[in-house]
Amino acid sequence: MVYDGGDLVGIDIASVKLLLCAKNTGADFSNTLQLGRQGMHTDVRSLGQALAVSRISADAAMIAQNEYSEAFFSALGATCISSLDLSDFEGATIIHDLNQPIPVGLSQRFSVVHDGGTLEHVFNFPQALKNCMEMVRVGGYFTQVIGANNFMGHGFWQISPELIYRVFTPQNGFNVVAVLLHEVVPKGGWYLVSDPEAYQSQQIGRRSWELRVELCNNAPTYILTIARRTSVENIFAVAPQQSNYVLAWRDARGPLTPLETPHRPFAAVHRLIASTIKTPIRKVQAALKKKPSPFDRPYYCRLSEDEVILGRFLKT
User: Which of 20, 61, 97, 173 has the fewest other C-beta atoms within 10 Å?
Assistant: First the structure.
């Protein structure tokens, strides 16, 4: 997957780093499935540096010069590399429409299923995601690089951490290893994202809509996922629910919406104090030419690129 001013296709350097992270946190790439035959879109220098950090002795120049990514997956340890697509126009080895359930023969077949920019183009997204989960063998991994913010019009969908954390649950036979956000700009940052449900459990006295893990930024942003299959379950037997509403229901307050206006007896005073404080702060920020980052939130943790590649941010 690469952002080139309007498209997301194949393996770019962000995808390389995610897949190296998956390998360094336990993924076995021996039998890998790509959703769509992934093109290779990395420069030799960046690829070589990432491989060196991961201590993989592979020929970066040879890998980067290939039109497709099989050589890269081989460097990760893949001995069987398949690709699934609706059409064979790029030489996919399995032809199937992900809008439809998978054939029995594809169930639990692969050690890694990688979505590098396919599922956002599939209209029946829940079925397509379920298909991917079913194709992973127990102990195997699902990895994904997909648009989160500022890719409107690229495909049907942009997705959020809330979706990933509510889908890849033990109830569905999976555990989330990591959810990351990465701004696809020069020197774009990497951020580990907390589970919204875990973040909400730490907040006391806050309303439903104040507990969402959100991001409003102005750069194209990937969401990158690593999830491990732990058991065979009836996936989506119970439909996922957004966690902040589940919390509200458990507290017997009923589902709240942003249209509700809770009673705040001193709201006018609070607004006056806030405006009095914010004005000088904004003037200072303008003078320093430093804008607050949209990632300055308790549920985002900034990571270095080496931490991402090596998975050093994960608890052992």
Answer: 61
**Residue carrying the six token digits 């997957």:** 1
Please, which residues bridge with residue 201 across strands? Answer: none
pLDDT digits (tens, 9 = 90+) for 274-310: 555 555 656 655 555 667 899 998 899 999 999 999 9
For helices 44-53 and 13-24, the axis angle rounded to 10 degrees is 10
> Position of tokens 């540096």?
49
Name, in order, each residue with C-beta under 8 angstroms of 311's C-beta and a sequence gap of 6 or more.
Answer: 21, 24, 25, 178
Average pLDDT value for residue range 89-95? 94
Total-model pTM: 0.84
Residues in the chain: 316
Q: How far is residue 263's CA from residue 270's CA, in Å, rounded to a whole number?
A: 13
Give the residue from 227, 195, 196, 228 showing the smallest Cα distance to 211.
196
**HSE on the CB side for 201, CA within 13 Å?**
5
Contact present, 174 and 230 (Cβ < 8 Å): yes
Calpha distance 279→262 (Å, rounded): 26
Alpha helix ranges (H) inside 136-266 = 161-167, 196-201, 243-250
Which of 184, 111, 188, 104 minimizes the C-alpha distance to 143?
111
In this structure, what token pair is assigned to residue 65? 């010069």
Mean pLDDT within 25-35: 97
Question: For residues 230-250, b (16+ Cβ closer than 10 Å) or e, as one string?
Answer: eeeeebeeeebebbbbbbbee
Rounded to the nearest angstrom, the gap between the alpha carbon of residue 153 and the centroid of all alpha carbons in its chain is 19
